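We include this case.
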Amino acid sequence: MQRSTVFALVLYVLSLAATTSVCAAWSPSDGAKGQAVFRIRGALVPHDLAGTVGPGWLVGGAAGVGISRWVMLTANFDHVALRDRNARSVEPWTLQLEMGAPFQRHVMPRFEVGAGLYRRTEKPWIFPTSSNLRDETLFGFNYGLGLSAPIATRVMADLNLRYHQTLDRDVGGTRSHSLKLSYVAFGLTYGLR
């Protein structure tokens, strides 16, 4: 009896979330234009997803503003801790454009593209210890797909699939190896306006 009651309650809450008017949370007549958002996210980084480093975990966030009806500009920071044989952590600091129909539908798909600096911490190949970790900063880019759905007034649940890749030289021009990183992230977006 309790299972069916819990199941019915969950279905009721999900149906309310699906039918909640986005108008109550956002201004659909303007789309994303002028909307300020704050986003938090987390992810587990699987091993060898699309040939990338892993396994590990990710925590991060973003702050952004709508620059047109269909486009948002966000500043993103993530910390990715890895258990790869070489890479220990990666910290992407990126600017990103998110294109889609934000704040205008119940489930909103979007395409994301960005670029920025990637701080990578590695163990050396010979005699790896925690005291001789090497840091380098690389320029890189990312792209991905996302879905957002309203769950409360000014709050959206996010699902993102993102791919990152860096160039094979650090910002000083020293030759390095490129980094490839893919993950599926879950998070929340808060409307600040």
Remarks:
- Strands lie at 36-45, 56-66, 71-82, 87-100, 108-122, 134-152, 155-170, 180-191.
- The domain at 2-191 is CATH 2.40.160.20 (Porin).
- The chain is about 10% helix and 55% strand.
